[in-house]
Amino acid sequence: MMKRKEFMLGAIAGLTFAAAATAGGVIDWPSAEAGPVAGISGRLAPSAGASGLAFAPPQGAPLSFADIFQQVAPAVVQIDVKTRVRQPRMIQIPGLPFAIPNPNGEEEGEDGQGGPGAVAMGAGSGFFIAANGFIVTNNHVVVDATEITVKLADGRELEARVIGRDEATDLAVIKVEGSDFPFVSFEETAQPRVGDWVIAVGNPFGLGGTATAGIVSAQGRQNLDDPTSSFVDFLQIDAAINRGNSGGPTFDIYGRVIGVNSAIYSPTGGSVGIGFAIPASVAKPITDQLMRGGSVARGYVGLALQTFNADRWEALGQPRDFKGAYVDSVTPDGPSAQAGVESGDLLVGVNGRPVANGTEATRAVGSSRPGETIRLEVIRDGRRRVINVRSGTRPSESELLADSGQGAGDGRPGVPSTPQGQVVEGATVTPLTAALRSRYGLPETVTGVIVTAVERGTPAAEAGLQAGLLISRAGSRTVNSAADLAAAVQQVKAAGRPSILLFVTDGRQRGTLVLKFAAD
């Protein structure tokens, strides 16, 4: 499970040491008689091994990280933030002994009345990237902050303001007033290798100025976290990263910043030796833009893309090693919709260069400037075509996530009974009616046929179909009736293919299932 819990939210309990319990009192230790231990007294001199060599690190390992830490630590800072917690306005109903949240969704302070709401405290890390007070950290450390305080290594505390944030890479730049601050630099030219030493410095659990060491465990980790999955190939490191390390630097053994600590993988919320850092090759150009203009503008064409595994490409009638991305949906009135891109197209190239998956395609589009013409190469009905799309400006990741919501709603038992349907490969499907839409909690925006029953031991059951799932497409065909689904299945069977790809949703999430046909 991916966690961004290395950013601490809430009050931090202080450490209580045993010595604190003696304040105002005297410790009376049990008496003991001084003397030799096991018959040995005097200075204990270590003895060299048989080879005559004293303790030494293995070849290639540093003797100590102390010099490196002493060199870079003054540039690392602790970042404390305050945010407002949005709380619903409570109303009192006559006759009830307690207040309830306002059903109209009003929040405290919306109309100038009521309290300002609760204040949440958070903490993270950062580092000076320039002598004039620019500090790099994570976006999730300072987002929605109403007050930011930076604690320097020498104990000073300075107020900071946000210069710019980039949600897509989870990077932010803040600034304190002043000059001649110690700073460090990103290393872009010498790429770290798997097995190279790294040092993470930061503010875990509010314990500022903490160093941990490890190695680069892997490179190019993708799809670790929704907001950053399209634009960051993370460095995986095993130097301990915990709550409060967010935004801190990862150094190589020369004191150069090779990454910005961002996330951990943990079943407990604490470090288990799997941490992720935004590599310098991504962080430097983004933070440079933020320092200059406060924002990062990326190209946008309004496509929701999916990347399939070999089984799904085969079920879609493509080679198992097919390279490209499936156009799952097209934003209405967006750039691609206006240019003629359709749901079900296979995107195989951007601006004359092939793309292997949805991530590559998104990055290729994002690297274009808003207003530029982007050439999208797609496959439709087995034929390649190039569609010119005028790029828009990519919305923020939170806006995109909100727009992709499929709606909510739990299925409600006891509403009108299911009408009779047609059985296709063991699944009983029927057109979507208002009653079925209500029964299964499906939003008005989805269309297709609803699965009302699945017979055990059939291809439909083995594919994972179950009552309540809505099938919107089968292969390259849109499905609006049971006959549409049956025809799509028959067409694929006639072509000699062993399976068909079904596009399904439960009203909250969308997915795909491979329907493999039974052998005749």
Mean pLDDT across residues = 78
Question: Low-confidence parts lasting 5 or more residues at pLDDT below 50?
Answer: 5-55, 110-114, 406-419
Structural class: alpha+beta
**Helix percentage range:** 10-25%
- What's the tally of helices? 10
C-alpha end-to-end distance = 42 Å
Number of beta strands? 31
Task: Write down the overall geometry.
Answer: elongated
Percent of residues in beta strands: 25-35%
Largest sheet: 7 strands, antiparallel
Radius of gyration: 30 Å
If you had to describe this structure to a student in words, what would you say it looks like?
This protein is 15% helix and 33% strand. The protein is built from ten helices and 31 strands. The strands form six sheets. Strands 25, 26, 27, 28, 29, 30 and 31 form a seven-stranded antiparallel beta sheet that branches. A six-stranded antiparallel barrel has the order 11-12-13-16-15-14. Strands 3-6-7-10-9-8 form a six-stranded antiparallel barrel. The two termini are 42 Å apart. The protein is α+β, with helices and mostly antiparallel strands and 520 residues long. The chain is elongated and about 75 Å long.
Question: Keywords for this structure?
Answer:
7-stranded antiparallel sheet; 31 strands; 520 residues; alpha+beta; 6-stranded antiparallel beta barrel; elongated; 33% strand
